[in-house]
């Protein structure tokens, strides 16, 4: 029995010294195989007496089970080590490099539109919107531009059918407001939106542009009220030193009508190539709402009067920020748009 204990210790020491799965497998065959040491011990049982044989057999089986358990545990340990070595040697980075996110900023047309609307909201005006596919009735008839009027040819309209069209100006919103709010006077609204005309696309013209029109209807409204309002608009958009100039003009919606100029941003009024040496740059059109427009909406033109104005947001952006080509505002060129992140 002592020899068996010594043999077991010797076997375990060999297993402990093995540091690879190949060595363990060789030892397993050497110790537990058909021609291994344990099997050789079992063959010695035939030389033992009947009394010694059971004790010897039980001891050999004990050694066999212990060795087998030890081998299994050692295999698990070595497999874990082998896997860790393999993972370390074959490790690859499956993650993608960090993306650099560029957060967008507001479009210059949006910046200008919101600035104008916020200014007039602070003055008590409500923002009103309307359909882009408009009825001829509100786009032309109620704006004092009857059928066959020359002004219709000047606007070169996109017609959907004989009654509907892509609106040529946001005046259509104003004519709707006049009709809807004729019993809710006074009226103070600002009307932003896209408009469409069949213009040739070049540096200063586009078939689509953004327009904002303002309308105020109340008792005793005069041209001086219009002038003061437009001075506030010009100074808010272009600086407190801005001055405006009113020149007589003609619009069907208003009478009298004026073109509104602002001091040249480049030369501050002294004259340069930008303003063609005049010191002034045209900004918008305006005037007192035509009495016939009020009457068509059902408003007493003897009691009420008002003014209206319309500004092209695209033109205002080009003037304020020095954009030379209106098409740049619609091409989504990030080089241009990135210039406006400081204006958010």
What does this structure look like?
It is a single chain. The model has no long low-confidence stretch (mean pLDDT 85). The strands form 2 sheets. This protein has a 7-stranded mixed beta sheet, with helices on both faces. The chain is of the alpha+beta class. The protein has helices at residues 2-17, 21-32, 37-43, 52-89, 108-122, 136-139, 150-155, 171-180, 223-238, 291-296, 313-321, 334-337, and strands at residues 126-127, 133-135, 164-166, 187-196, 208-218, 244-251, 254-263, 280-289, 305-312. The protein starts with a helix and ends in a 7-residue tail after the last helix. It has 12 helices and 9 strands. The radius of gyration is 46 Å and the shape is rod-shaped. The protein has 2 domains: 2-89; 108-343, BirA Bifunctional Protein, domain 2, CATH 3.30.930.
How many β-strand stretches?
Answer: 9
Global outline: rod-shaped
CATH superfamily of the largest domain: Bira Bifunctional Protein, Domain 2
Count of DSSP-assigned helices = 12
Query: What number of structural domains do the residues give?
Result: 2
Q: What is the ordering of alpha helices and beta strands?
A: HHHHHEEHHEHEEHEEEHEHH
CATH-level-2 architecture of the largest domain: 2-Layer Sandwich
Average of the residue pLDDT scores: 85
CATH topological fold name of the largest domain: BirA Bifunctional Protein, domain 2
The CATH class of the largest domain turns out to be Alpha Beta
Terminal Cα separation, in Å? 93 Å
**Strand-residue proportion:** 15-25%
Q: What is the topology, as strand order, of the major beta sheet? A: 1-4-5-9-8-7-6
Task: Give the helix proportion (percent range).
Answer: 40-55%
* Low-confidence runs of at least 5 consecutive residues: none
Structural class: alpha+beta
Tell me the major beta sheet: 7 strands, mixed
């Amino acid at each position: 029995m002592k020899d068996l204990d010594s043999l077991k210790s010797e076997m375990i020491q060999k297993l402990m010294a093995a540091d690879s799965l190949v060595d363990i497998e060789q030892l397993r065959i050497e110790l537990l195989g058909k021609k291994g040491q344990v099997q050789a011990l079992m063959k010695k049982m035939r030389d033992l007496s009947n009394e010694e044989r059971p004790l010897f057999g039980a001891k050999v089986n004990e050694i066999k089970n212990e060795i087998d358990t030890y081998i299994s545990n050692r295999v698990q340990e070595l497999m874990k080590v082998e896997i860790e070595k393999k993972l370390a040697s074959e490790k690859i980075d499956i993650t993608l490099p960090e993306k650099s996110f560029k957060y967008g900023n507001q479009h210059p047309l949006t910046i200008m539109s919101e600035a104008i609307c916020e200014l007039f909201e602070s003055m008590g005006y409500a923002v009103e919107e309307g359909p882009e596919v408009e009825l001829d009735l509100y786009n032309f008839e109620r704006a004092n531009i009857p059928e066959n009027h020359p002004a219709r040819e000047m606007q070169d309209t996109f017609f959907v059918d004989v009654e509907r069209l892509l609106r040529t100006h946001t005046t259509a919103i104003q004519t709707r407001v006049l009709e809807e709010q004729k019993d809710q006077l006074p009226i103070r609204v600002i009307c932003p939106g896209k408009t469409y005309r069949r213009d040739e696309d070049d540096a200063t013209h586009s078939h689509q542009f953004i327009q904002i029109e303002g309308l105020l209807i109340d008792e005793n409204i005069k041209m001086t009220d219009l002038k003061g309002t437009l001075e506030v608009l010009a100074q808010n958009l272009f600086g407190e030193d801005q001055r405006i100039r009113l020149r007589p003009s003609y619009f069907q919606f208003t009478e009298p009508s004026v073109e509104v100029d602002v001091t040249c941003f480049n030369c501050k009024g002294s004259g340069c190539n930008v303003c063609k040496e005049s010191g002034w740059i045209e900004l918008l059109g305006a005037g007192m709402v035509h009495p016939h427009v009020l009457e068509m909406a059902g408003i007493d033109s003897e009691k009420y009067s008002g003014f209206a104005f319309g500004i092209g947001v695209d033109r205002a952006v080009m003037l304020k920020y020095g954009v030379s080509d209106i098409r740049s505002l619609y091409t989504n060129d990030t080089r241009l748009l990135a210039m406006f992140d400081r204006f958010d």
